[in-house]
């Protein structure tokens, strides 16, 4: 099909036809300018931020429990003393005991000093070198005594005269020197301590850590070491095995005793460091006192242990901040969160739409929080009273809360982007409510992503989509996440807890879907949202309003059906919501039900209700069908978008037929006819949907005036109607592009030509020979039909 080309379009109004504003438009503009204080307040997002944050902070802030009464030891309790809430208490005594045990378990650290043997070797060589210097001259008694004194001063050890003489006799043999060094080196290599009687760190029982560089440290028993006395015995054994004369062996033994020294010392610094590390590795021990636990029963004697527990509970309660402090902290945090949310929403949608979404998110968060609070209470009750093993574990109930309720709602009502924003904030709310539970935040966020995709995948044609998304996506994802958590914490069992968590994960998804299903129509009506299920309900031909219209205004009803077909097809072409456009077209003329006989499409035979009316009165009757349509729309509680189409489907256009008729009847010199009385109240179409219905409405009505609805004539009608509305500035506020107008025009032509296509002649009939009545001027009044 060839597209239409608007060659006769006029983009500037002629000076002969000035367009004047009607009084209705002027008054409405004045009303728009005079916005009251209350209206400005209601449209102030910071008012809603304050309201939402106060409500959430109030319910999320805990109410501190009163301290427990402290009875006297030995007193008989006059009433039960019960723990006021779940308390996790730091067990200082047990913690310190475990730290001490860990420190005591640390083995003392000893170091084997390699330099000790090197020093010993150096002393031996220096000793033998001095001895060789001694024998260079005759070794008199005085020189031997001087040698002994020098040795005593140097090595702090006394060598016998006999041993010196034996060394002189051997001329301080180098073989003797090397044997001595090797023997001491062999024994020193095993490690020598001063005395085993000097151990004070329980080395005898526990053993010790020996660090012998460059070898790795090792734990050894005390029996694996030698002290000085044991090393001397070991040296004696080694020397006695040598192939030497007895005198040589005795000399070597005496020299080894002279030079042997301990090379293993206790390292206090390293030992203390390891003890501190062991203490630090022991975490603080906590124990939990459950809410409702009876500390002292009525009639029992108060003992020291009970008093101690009461004092610990009171001490922990006193450490908690006051309710006001907790409230203020929560208030400030959520103020920042909601303020950020508002500016984020405002950044990508218009103010009114952003405000509506913001209010929806705030209300849904408040509702969700109340559901979570109620779920906590029910979980506590059910876990205590249930006889089913899977329902006894209260810690698993957190996976059964309806955490995806709001996400399913927003995915269905507001789209993916807003649903994702809500999912993030809702996950944060859950994590905060459950005391920084990171795993639960992840569980909520991933489940929300599954819910969003589920709604997108299964579509929005039916509200039961929420159940499909929950059954086939949210529940399986919940199960997968729960199992993943068990792998992360490296703990699969016990199997009954895992089974309980999986059950709760499935129930949580189903409960979320059920709540979303129940609240969908509530949100649709309260926020005037138009969803696909709502539109399907509104376009049902069996509705009373359509049955009434078909009976009382059949021509208008048929006209509305054709307009709906025209507009719906064009909406599909330019990517608008075809169901919304169809619904708007079906309802656009419901105001004609009030006075159907005044509209030519409903006229019976030759009855003309406008015959005896002045043009101004006839125009008023025609114009009022918009106002009356709005009144009926309010009674029917139609969504705002459809009411806007009803109100705007004529814009503030001119009722041309009666305006021209009035000009014909009046005397130009005596009276001047103004357009303001013959224009619709408006406003002009503010949306593409409303403008599309306006164009389809006028084109359908105008096409009925054609005697020969050929494609050329239909093109001419469409072109003239489009040109007229463009020239009259009726399409200025709806953001239609010229390309979209061309697509709409082509779609209208295709649909109209299909409706008015010629049929083959019926054999044996001659319909054209029948006498036709000439159409009167009243039969050609195009505008009253709309």
Properties at a glance:
786 residues; mainly alpha; 4-stranded mixed beta sheet; two-stranded antiparallel ribbon; 10 strands; 4% strand
Topology:
Blueprint lengths: L22 H11 L3 H6 L2 H16 L20 E2 L4 E4 L1 H13 L4 E4 L1 H21 L6 H15 L5 H9 L4 H17 L1 E2 L9 H4 L1 E4 L6 E3 L5 E2 H13 L5 H14 L4 E3 L1 H14 L4 E4 L4 E3 L7 H16 L3 H26 L2 H35 L19 H9 L2 H18 L4 H21 L6 H24 L6 H32 L5 H7 L5 H9 L1 H20 L4 H10 L27 H22 L3 H9 L7 H10 L22 H16 L7 H17 L10 H18 L31
Helix pairs in contact: 3-14, 3-15, 4-12, 5-6, 5-8, 8-10, 8-11, 10-11, 14-15, 15-17, 16-17, 16-18, 16-20, 17-18, 18-19, 19-20, 22-23, 23-24, 23-28, 23-30, 24-26, 24-28, 25-26, 25-27, 26-28, 28-29, 29-30
Concise synopsis of the structure shown:
The protein is mainly alpha-helical and 786 residues long. It is built from 30 helices and 10 strands.
């Amino acid at each position: 099909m060839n597209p239409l080309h608007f060659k006769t379009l006029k983009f500037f109004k002629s000076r002969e036809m000035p367009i004047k504003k009607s009084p209705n438009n002027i008054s409405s503009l004045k009303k728009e300018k005079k916005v009251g204080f209350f209206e400005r307040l209601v449209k102030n997002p910071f008012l809603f931020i304050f309201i939402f944050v106060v409500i959430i902070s109030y319910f999320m802030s805990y109410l501190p429990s009163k301290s427990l009464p402290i009875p006297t030891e030995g007193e008989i309790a006059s009433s039960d003393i019960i723990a006021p809430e779940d308390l996790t208490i730091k067990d200082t005594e047990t913690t310190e005991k475990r730290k001490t045990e860990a420190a005591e378990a640390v083995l003392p650290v000893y170091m084997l000093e390699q330099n000790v043997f090197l020093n010993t070797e150096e002393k031996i060589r220096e000793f033998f070198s001095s001895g060789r210097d001694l024998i260079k001259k005759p070794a008199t008694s005085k020189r031997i005594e001087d040698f002994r004194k020098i040795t005593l001063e140097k090595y702090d050890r006394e060598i016998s005269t006999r041993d010196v003489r034996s060394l002189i006799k051997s001329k301080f043999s180098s073989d003797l020197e090397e044997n001595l060094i090797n023997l001491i080196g062999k024994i020193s290599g095993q490690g020598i301590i001063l005395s085993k009687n000097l151990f004070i760190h329980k080395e005898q029982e526990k053993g010790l850590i020996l660090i012998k560089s460059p070898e790795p440290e090792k734990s050894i028993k005390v029996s694996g070491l030698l002290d000085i006395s044991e090393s001397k015995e070991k040296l004696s054994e080694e020397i006695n095995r040598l192939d030497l004369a007895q005198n040589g062996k005795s000399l070597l033994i005496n020299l080894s005793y002279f030079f042997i020294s301990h090379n293993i010392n206790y390292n206090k610094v390293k030992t203390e460091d390891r003890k501190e590390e062991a203490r630090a590795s022991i975490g603080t021990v906590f124990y939990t006192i459950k809410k409702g636990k009876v500390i002292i029963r009525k009639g029992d004697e108060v003992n020291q242990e009970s008093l101690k527990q009461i004092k610990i509970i009171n001490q922990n309660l006193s450490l908690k901040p006051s309710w006001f402090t907790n409230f203020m902290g929560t208030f400030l945090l959520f103020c920042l969160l909601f303020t950020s949310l508002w500016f984020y929403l405002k950044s990508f949608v218009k103010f009114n739409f952003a405000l509506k979404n913001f209010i929806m998110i705030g209300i849904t968060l408040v509702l969700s929080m109340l559901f979570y609070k109620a779920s906590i209470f029910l979980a506590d009750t059910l876990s205590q009273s249930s006889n089913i093993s899977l329902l006894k574990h209260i810690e698993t109930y957190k996976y059964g809360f309806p955490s995806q309720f709001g996400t399913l709602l927003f995915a269905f009502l507001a789209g993916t982007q807003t649903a994702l924003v809500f999912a993030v904030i809702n996950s944060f709310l859950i994590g905060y409510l459950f005391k920084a539970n990171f795993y639960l935040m992840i569980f909520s966020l991933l489940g929300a992503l599954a819910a969003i995709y589920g709604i997108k995948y299964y579509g929005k044609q039916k509200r039961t989509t929420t159940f499909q998304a929950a059954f086939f996506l949210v529940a399986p994802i919940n199960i997968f996440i729960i199992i993943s958590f068990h792998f992360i914490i490296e703990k699969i069992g016990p199997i009954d807890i895992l089974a309980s968590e999986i059950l709760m994960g499935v129930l949580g998804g189903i409960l979320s879907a059920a709540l979303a299903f129940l609240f969908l129509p509530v949100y649709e009506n309260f926020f005037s949202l138009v969803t696909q299920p709502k539109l399907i309900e509104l376009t049902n031909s069996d509705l009373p309003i359509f049955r009434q219209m078909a009976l009382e205004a059949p021509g208008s009803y048929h006209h509305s059906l054709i307009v709906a077909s025209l507009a719906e097809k064009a909406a599909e072409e330019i990517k608008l919501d075809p169901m919304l456009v169809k619904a708007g077209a079906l309802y656009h003329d419901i105001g004609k039900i009030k006075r159907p006989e005044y509209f030519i499409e409903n006229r019976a035979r030759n009855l003309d209700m406008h015959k005896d009316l002045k043009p101004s009165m006839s125009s008023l009757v025609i114009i009022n069908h918009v106002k009356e349509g709005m009144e009926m729309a309010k009674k029917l509680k139609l969504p705002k978008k459809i009411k806007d189409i009803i109100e705007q489907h004529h814009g503030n256009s001119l009722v041309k037929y009666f305006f021209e008729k009035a000009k014909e009847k009046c005397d130009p010199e005596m009276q001047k006819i103004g357009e303001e009385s013959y224009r619709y109240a408006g406003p002009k179409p503010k949306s593409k949907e409303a403008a599309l219905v306006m164009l389809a409405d006028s084109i359908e009505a105008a096409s009925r005036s054609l005697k020969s609805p050929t494609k050329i004539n239909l093109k001419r009608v469409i072109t003239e109607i489009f040109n007229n509305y463009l020239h009259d500035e009726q399409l200025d506020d709806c953001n239609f592009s010229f390309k979209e107008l061309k697509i709409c025009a082509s779609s209208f032509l295709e649909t109209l030509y299909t409706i008015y296509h010629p049929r083959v002649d019926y054999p044996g009939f001659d319909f054209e020979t029948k006498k036709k009545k000439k159409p009167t001027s009243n039969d050609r009044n195009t505008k009253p039909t709309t």
